[in-house]
């Protein structure tokens, strides 16, 4: 991901840049972005959810590293870039591995990483991944592992590739936004669209694959929305109070 928010993580705080011997001294909290590769209308990149999850995770790690608690070391893991995106498969570029496969990936990931990491936190950028995350983390916790998950959410955000995601991308990855191609999609409440989407996916309710209005997006709005995502995840991780299903409260 080519994001300034990814590059701001201090060298030595990225799992991929560390060596095995670097991880011996301080118990680690591994922060794992979980996204998707799926259509986001004609104007946003296919890795939008992954970009957002990774940028939020990077800022969570950077803030935790600069915090008062030096008994734990926070590490940013490479993202899991494929998720459960079957509702978008009518659009070119979408690659979905489905809920069950994603659940298996998350469980085996957690079992392996849990051999050396003190805690595992999956930071989710795609709503379709929730069922897999809930089931996987519940199982990992039942096996005695300190695993949890949280989502990159904001209050009142629209559903897909609209004002919310377009604004955030204009803030964190402006060069990747084809704003001149943006078109309003179906702006009806998601609850009203779900029956048709269950039968025919997003294509059944939006010809352009957008649920919301990206034409109202701005970088300034994206900065505020992104900060809300980061603060929400950072606060929940800092409190570390997983619910029964493993979601951080």
Automatic annotation (TrEMBL):
Cited InterPro entries: Creatininase-like_sf (IPR024087), Creatininase/forma_Hydrolase (IPR003785), MftE (IPR023871)
Top-tier EC class: hydrolase
Named cofactor requirement(s): Zn(2+)
GO biological process: riboflavin biosynthetic process
GO MF terms, alphabetically ordered: creatininase activity; hydrolase activity, acting on carbon-nitrogen (but not peptide) bonds, in linear amides; metal ion binding
Classification via Pfam families: Creatininase
Enzyme Commission number: 3.5.2.10
Keyword list, A-Z: Hydrolase, Metal-binding, Zinc
Sequence similarity: Belongs to the creatininase superfamily.
Protein name: Creatininase
Gene field: crnA
């Amino acid at each position: 991901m080519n994001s300034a928010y990814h590059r701001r993580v201090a060298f030595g705080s990225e799992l991929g840049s560390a060596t095995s011997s670097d991880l011996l001294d301080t118990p680690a909290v591994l922060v794992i972005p979980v996204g998707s590769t799926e259509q986001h209308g004609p104007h946003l990149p296919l890795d939008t959810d992954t970009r957002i999850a990774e940028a939020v995770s990077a800022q969570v790690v950077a803030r935790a590293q600069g915090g008062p608690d030096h008994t734990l070391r926070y590490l940013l893991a490479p993202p899991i870039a494929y998720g459960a995106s079957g509702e978008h498969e009518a659009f070119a570029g979408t690659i979905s591995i489905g809920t069950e496969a994603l659940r298996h990936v998350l469980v085996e990931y957690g079992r392996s990483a849990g051999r050396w990491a003190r805690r595992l936190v999956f930071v989710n950028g795609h709503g379709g991944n929730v069922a897999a995350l809930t089931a996987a983390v519940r199982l990992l916790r039942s096996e005695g592992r300190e695993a949890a998950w949280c989502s990159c959410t904001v209050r009142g955000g629209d559903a897909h590739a609209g004002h919310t995601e377009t604004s955030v991308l204009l803030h964190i990855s402006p060069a990747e936004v084809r704003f001149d191609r943006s078109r309003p999609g179906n702006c009806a409440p998601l609850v009203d669209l779900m029956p048709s989407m269950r039968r025919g996916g997003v294509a059944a309710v939006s010809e352009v694959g957008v649920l919301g209005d990206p034409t109202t997006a701005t970088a300034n709005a994206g900065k505020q929305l992104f900060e809300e995502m980061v603060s929400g995840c950072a606060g929940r991780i800092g409190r570390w109070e997983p619910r029964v299903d493993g979601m951080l409260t």
